[in-house]
UniProtKB/TrEMBL annotation:
Source species taxonomy: Bacteria, Pseudomonadati, Pseudomonadota, Alphaproteobacteria, Hyphomicrobiales
Domain of life: Bacteria
Protein name: DNA polymerase III subunit epsilon
GO biological process, alphabetically ordered: DNA replication proofreading
Organism: Mesorhizobium temperatum
Every CBS domain range: 238-299, 309-366
Main function: DNA polymerase III is a complex, multichain enzyme responsible for most of the replicative synthesis in bacteria. The epsilon subunit contain the editing function and is a proofreading 3'-5' exonuclease.
Length: 703
């Protein structure tokens, strides 16, 4: 179990709900007579195992206390001492976050008991459901367990027993997670910071002698990584072309071929040729052959190799980073992966031997867990690993644009897995299988490969057949809503602009999307084209990729053929003036929105000119490089944008990872005073230059 950080979503933290019963309400004098605890995982209370311990306090239990919790001196006669109970409690809790109602009281009495018994004490990381409920609903009459439970429609059993109250606190915590998400509190760090802002409640607890119920989030220790697996893609490591044999070929001949070619596996298909869809192939490895010879030596050599091939073939995209291949091999316990292009066609083979150049001590913190997550909570847990990797890669001076590509790959994988899980939910709920072929698309920065640590949902669906509001569209509307909900729970919030397949404007049949393109290119008002441009950044992540390819080809063809369309897109480039009359930055709480004033004009310039001039690249970097190669725009201006693009992404990633661990909601604003004077000067120079980006686009529109 990896320790929780400020970046860990509340739904993904491993926690233990705890409660104590004592000899009295005064935390400075009370002795513990009972400890109860129960686990919380994936946002749900785990009913077993549980902890329920009576403790002999070593002194008489006042009758007033017994009237509350029902524990008498006779009940604890012969019970264990606190040190015995503490050992069991520590073993049960482990490194989990503690959750409780008014947990500052429990922490205070536990600390006092430890000091009295001369046991080591280190304050555990904790959350108080009383404070969390105050944040989630500031209008409750009071914040007792009963009142909070009634608001959340929960039933409480075993009130004023340690285990009963621990279970109640756990159930309340689980029910509060979606309520807190509505208030943009998603992570452990954000919850801690929000609780620490409740100064009146904290001061009241302090006066009563309670411990601080939460701690201020801190960034974990820096973990260096070997950047090789994050720099290289599978396509640069694979063996290509792959060795493919016909299914009918005798095993003896295949063994001879493997020895001659010095390969540890061959792919098998009926055609015996590469460049076909990945589904047509199986694989035979050295180990497969040895096992078959061992079990059936007399016939093994004459068997057709297709009879011992493993299917379906496990594959990975050529564009995937090496860390993904390492994770997939480790998860599935295989040593070979077929490699496919974005269209699903076989292009190579990757073996564990190909990855030996990776240093043995490489820290592959991002693995393949997204691909087999069972629910949104597991997706959230995997997504929460990303900030640590990003922080380490920035520390290793990896090109920020490459780091953004890694984030984008994870976002696309998350969206793909969420779509698979949403489709499974559709079957379970009786909606049936998809009515026709379809593809889920990631748009905007995720599609361009330029995601940062504050992504929201920009997605769409294209399906093969059906009219708006028809039966097919109705099915995909429900799927889109489930996809949006799952992504929101996983840590990728709903798009404030509504760019989600759950909304009618961002789903439709291929014919519907083509009709929309025709409508776009004939629009005469820029305000009618809101959110249209990011569709040109699309990347298919699930389903039939040919549908996406047909759509984007049509969109580019029509966009290039109608110059007025690209011109109107260019006219939407309003960056605003971030400078004061004295030339300094206009800041909000010491921060500047560098996406609005910096990244947006660069991205929009590259995209608009790419549409106009038929450049089919997807990333801003590739678009600018193609514009330079085609001598469109001054080379000096384009290169300045290229360099500025990398610089701005680097500034934002550094700020965002800092904010995530500090429990500060992630945004596109950076703290200017955190930059060096040289960096501030570079930023100011770049943004001043970008003020003329709309004019540059206008001049180049008909170049």
């Amino acid at each position: 179990m990896k320790p929780a950080t400020g970046a860990t979503p509340l739904i993904a933290i491993a926690a233990a709900a705890v409660d104590t019963e004592t000899t009295g309400p005064d935390a400075t004098k009370a002795r513990v007579v009972q400890i109860g605890a129960i686990g919380i995982a994936h946002g749900k209370v785990v009913r077993q195992p549980r902890l329920d311990l009576l403790i002999d306090p070593g002194e008489a239990i006042p009758s007033e206390a017994s009237l509350v919790h029902g524990i008498t001196n006779a009940d604890v006669d012969g019970a264990g001492s606190f040190p015995d109970a503490w050992t069991q409690f520590r073993e049960f809790v482990g490194g989990r976050i503690l959750v409780g109602h008014s947990i500052g009281f429990d922490l205070a009495v536990l600390e006092r008991e430890c000091r009295r018994a001369r046991l080591p004490w280190k304050k555990p990381r904790a959350l108080c459901v009383r404070l969390l409920a105050t944040i989630a609903n500031p209008n409750l009459a009071d914040y007792s367990l009963e009142t909070i439970a009634a608001w959340l429609r929960l039933e409480i059993a075993g009130r004023h027993s340690a285990l009963g109250d621990a279970i109640a606190a756990g159930d309340i915590f689980a029910a509060l997670i979606p309520e807190l998400r509505k208030r943009n509190i998603r992570t452990l760090g954000e919850a801690e910071v929000a609780c620490l802002a409740l100064s009146d409640a904290l001061e009241a607890g302090h006066r009563a002698g309670w411990a601080e119920p939460v701690s201020r989030p801190q960034a974990p220790a820096f973990q260096p990584v070997d950047p090789y697996a994050y720099r290289h893609r599978v396509g640069s490591l694979m063996s290509s072309p792959p060795v493919v044999v016909k299914s009918t070929k005798p095993t003896r001949q295949v063994i001879d071929l493997m020895v001659k070619r010095k390969v540890s596996s061959v792919l098998v298909s009926d055609r015996g040729a590469p460049d076909q869809p990945i589904e047509e192939y199986g694989i035979v490895t050295e180990r497969d052959l040895l096992r078959r010879i061992s079990s059936d030596a007399e016939r093994a050599f004459d068997m057709p190799v297709g009879s011992i091939a493993t299917r379906p073939l496990i594959s990975i995209r050529a564009a995937a980073f090496a860390y993904r291949a390492i994770g997939r091999m480790d998860r599935l316990k295989v040593r070979h992966l077929a490699v496919r292009d974005d269209g699903g066609v076989l292009v190579g083979v990757l073996s564990a031997r190909d990855l030996l150049r990776l240093r043995a001590a490489a820290a592959i913190d991002l693995d393949d867990t997204i691909e087999h997550a069972r629910d949104a909570a597991e997706l959230a847990a995997t997504w929460s690993m990303l900030p640590g990797v990003v922080r380490s890669l920035i520390g290793e001076a990896i090109d920020p644009r490459v780091v953004a590509e890694i984030i984008s790959d994870e976002l696309c994988s998350l969206t793909r897995r969420a779509a698979v899980l949403a489709e499974q939910q559709m079957l379970i709920e009786g909606h049936g299988p998809p009515p026709c072929a379809y593809a889920v698309l990631v748009l905007g920065s995720g599609g361009r490969g330029e995601s940062l640590m504050a992504p929201d949902q920009d997605n769409a669906i294209v399906f093969a057949d059906g009219e708006p509001d028809g039966p097919e569209d109705s099915w995909f509307k429900i799927l889109g809503a489930k996809l949006a909900d799952m992504l929101d729970i996983s840590g990728v919030p709903y798009c404030k602009g509504g760019v989600m397949a759950a909304n009618a404007a961002f789903r439709g049949s291929l014919d519907t999307w083509r009709a929309r393109v025709e409508d776009w290119v004939r629009r005469l008002r820029p305000q009618d084209l809101l959110n249209v441009d990011i569709v040109y950044d699309l990347r298919p992540v699930h389903g039939d990729t040919t549908l996406a390819a047909q759509f984007i080809e049509y969109a580019y063809d029509r966009g290039q053929a109608e110059p007025v369309f690209a011109k109107l897109l260019g006219e939407q480039m309003t960056t605003g003036n971030p400078f004061t009359v004295f030339g300094g930055f206009q800041l909000e709480n010491g921060r500047l929105d560098i996406k609005k004033h910096g990244l947006f004009p660069i991205v929009a310039t590259a995209r608009t000119l790419a549409i106009r001039h038929g450049i089919r690249e997807r990333s801003t970097r590739a678009r600018l490089e193609k514009l330079i190669a085609h001598d469109i725009g001054g080379e000096r201006d384009m290169k300045a944008m290229l360099a500025g693009h990398a610089m701005l992404i680097g500034f934002l990633l550094a700020q965002q990872t800092h904010d995530i661990y500090a429990g500060i909601p992630v945004s596109n604003r950076i703290e200017i005073n955190a930059l060096t004077r040289e960096q501030q000067a570079e930023l100011k120079s770049l943004i001043k230059r970008l003020q003329s980006a709309p004019d540059l686009v206008r001049d180049l529109m008909f170049a």
